[in-house]
Structure formats: C-alpha cells, structure tokens
Design a protein that fits this description.
Layout lengths: L7 H14 L2 E3 H7 L4 H13 L5 E4 L4 E4 L2 H9 L13 H19 L7 H4 L5 H9 L1 H7 L15 H8 L5 H13 L3 E5 L4 E5 L7
Antiparallel strand pairs: 1-3, 2-3, 4-5
Length: about 210
C-alpha cells in the first residue's frame, strides 16, 4: 500500500516517507515514486528541510539527495520523541504549511493510543464472549463464576489526549482536520463506532 498523492501536501508527505526510509535518494529513484519536475522536487525538499522533518542536501555522488548525517536521521526518526520545531520565516502562509507538515509527521511517527474495545473494558475476552453473556446469561454463568466487574466508562489514554498534550496550541477543529488529512492520504485514524474506541493504523508508513 502506498500513500495516496492527491495534492502538494500529500506529495511532500510521500517524499518525507521516502527520506525516512532511505539515507540517500537519486533523482532517478525519486522520479519512480513521484512524477514531478526537478524544480518541484527541489521546492518540496526545501519545505521538508525547513519543516525539520529531514536534513538532506544535494549530493553529486548520489546524483540526488542524501542525509547530511546518517546518525541524525536515525536519532530523529527513532529516539527523539518528536521532530525539531520548523524554521519559520516572514511568509505566514508558508509558515502555516510548515507547521502542519511538522505536526502531521509527528502524529504519524510518534502517536500514542492506549484505548481498547468496549468489551475489553468490560472484562470480556472478545466481542463473541460479550455477546454470549448478553444473549444467554444463564449459559454464560454455567461456564463462568460471574460476570466481569469492570467499568466501561473508565478512561483510557487515547490519541486525542496525546494530541492535546503534544499540540496544546491547536483547537479540536484543527485536530479533526489533521486526522481527516491523514485519512485522505490513505492512513487509518478515527473512532470505531462498533468497538466504541479510538483506533489508528499507520503500519504501512513504517515500512519502505
């Protein structure tokens, strides 16, 4: 599965995805994944550098782009816990774009979510176990000493909590727009109405 590239933002996010998994990227390889002009790639790389998601430069040896410091690449994407703040300038529209790039990359790379399906909150092993207890309690109790005693309303740390802690300056409307932008790129994030919990799946983004 690949990120859906539908606009400038998703294209740059796709480019970030490539640099996250490659220490260097020749132009020929970039053209295989992103069908745009050399000028567009140069502008996109500048935006990603200024958003502090990558730190790459043009390399004659590679005939493309390479990370300035491979160790920095590892630290930034594995141990830092967050990306450095963007390098902002005088252009407010571009600043907003860089902040959003940084924010969404932080969500995908460092999101935390401990929410679980409602039947687990109630103490049942799975949904089938829960349905059995609801539909035939006598039969359920013939195999179990009692019903689980857990409170479905007990709060679990969700990615909504994480987002608000990580980006306290952002409103809930901004948060929902960010999640919607990730869904537009083919990533899974949202509230599961069936299992009554917050869920996300960015698995494919972590592989090349």
């Amino acid at each position: 599965m690949k990120l859906k590239v539908t606009d400038k933002f998703s294209r740059q996010f796709r480019l970030f995805h490539l640099f996250a998994h490659c220490a260097d990227l020749p132009y020929d390889d970039l053209n295989t994944y992103i069908k745009v002009s050399l000028k567009t790639i140069q502008r996109d790389v500048k935006d990603l550098n200024d958003a502090s998601l990558i730190d790459v430069h043009f390399s004659k040896k590679v005939k493309g782009y390479a990370w300035r410091d491979p160790e920095e690449r590892y630290l930034r994407l594995n141990e830092a816990g967050c990306f450095p703040p963007p390098c902002l300038g005088q252009n407010q529209a571009r600043n907003r774009h860089l902040l959003k790039l940084n924010r969404l990359a932080t969500i995908v790379w460092y999101i935390k979510n401990e929410d679980i399906p409602f039947y687990e909150k109630l103490g049942y092993e799975d949904e089938e176990d829960y349905q059995w207890a609801m539909e035939d309690p006598a039969a359920y109790l013939s195999y179990n000493d009692s019903f689980p005693e857990k409170n479905e309303n007990m709060h679990y740390y969700t990615y909504v909590d994480w987002y608000q802690e990580t980006f306290p300056e952002c409103s809930r409307s901004t948060m929902y727009r960010d999640f919607n932008d990730l869904r537009k790129m083919g990533l899974t994030i949202g509230y599961n109405e069936v299992e009554r919990c917050y869920q996300h799946d960015f698995t494919f983004f972590y592989s090349y």
